[in-house]
Amino acid sequence: LHGSPCSVCILFQGGSAFSPAAVISQGRAQQQAAALAEEISCPTSSMQEMVSCLRQKPASVLNDAQTKLLAVSGPFHYWGPVVDGQYLREAPARALQRTPRVKVDLLIGSSQDDGLINRAKAVKQFEESQGRTSSKTAFYQALQNSLGGEDADAGVRAAATWYYSLEHSTDDYASFSRALENATRDYFITCPVIDMASHWARRARGNVFMYHAPESYGHSSLDLLADVRSAFGLPFYPAYEGQFTLEEKSLSLKIMQFFSNFIRSGNPNYPHEFSRKAPEFAAPWPDFVPRAGGESYKELSVLLPNRQGLKSADCSFWSKYIRSLKAVAAAESEEEDGLADTGLLGEPGSKSYSR
């Protein structure tokens, strides 16, 4: 985050105000905290004692317990902040509806190996340790139980299960595992990132640039995503000497230059607002424009190519089909409530209505 009297530059790496995981309800947060406390033998009778016990546990113990719980409830049963009026006064998506007083430039992106995907893979490892390696049941049950958050809708769950099952024709464990990872990534990370870029660009609040880091191999032990590793120069840290190739170091330098330019000028292509000389080390980073053929982004791979339409079909499924499905379900629910209020709704299970 960079600010000056006349402008602000914001960098989001894997985050979005429109993510379903942006906030959770207070009730759900308390339920999940209690479940976690029970898993690691913390008292739950008193909120104060429970919180004190949780804070004393090592991070590794908490992570292992969360992974075990997620293996039962599904990787979409996430932890998140609560709108409490103090720490967080309102949901981020609502806050975005207000027009800022100053120009705000946005650089936003996602990684194919996002942390939530790593959590889903950890669930897979737990399932394997329990001997469940040849059935689709565990993963698709997790998908069906989890999609839609607290306002889960059976139609949404069924539609998502059908859509992501189209990605493969076999019933092997690995195929269903990948389908769950893709659904997780699209629903919680990639599509909300694109939605936020589109929202920001439509309102002309400043420059908008987007990136995506493809799947990387060979550095999974570092527990850091490819975009974070490159942007913060991890290949040059003495502690990691010999772990990165010259090609990876070169890529990191270029990405650091892009990010440094953005922080200083609000544009990854120029180090200063008055600069107009395009970078020589890669193709200029295009603006993100929310229209067909204009949703350009920079791919953080060796050649730093420019791409268009990231996950367009999958995000269309969520933004159009699922949104329409939810609207229909909401309308039907309101109609039933209206009939119930007037006494015209039949008995449960009845197929006829009184006139």
What do these coordinates show?
By secondary structure, this protein is α/β, with parallel strands linked by helices. The protein has 2 domains: 2-22 and 103-342, Rossmann fold, CATH 3.40.50; 23-90, no CATH class. The chain contains 11 helices and 6 strands. Helix 8 packs across helix 11. It is globular.
* Second CATH tier, the architecture of the largest domain: 3-Layer(aba) Sandwich
Number of strands: 6
By secondary-structure content and strand pairing, the structural class works out as alpha/beta
Q: For the record, what is the CATH homologous superfamily label of the largest domain?
A: Alpha/Beta hydrolase fold, catalytic domain
Key features of this structure:
355 residues, alpha/beta, Rossmann fold, 6-stranded mixed beta sheet, globular, disordered C terminus
Give a quick precis of the structure:
47% of the residues lie in helices and 9% in strands.
Protein topology:
Blueprint: E1 2-3, E2 7-13, H1 26-39, H2 47-56, H3 59-73, H4 92-95, E3 103-111, H5 115-129, H6 137-146, H7 154-165, H8 173-202, E4 208-213, H9 226-231, H10 246-265, E5 296-299, E6 306-308, H11 312-342
Parallel strand pairs: 2-3, 3-4, 4-5
Antiparallel strand pairs: 1-2, 5-6
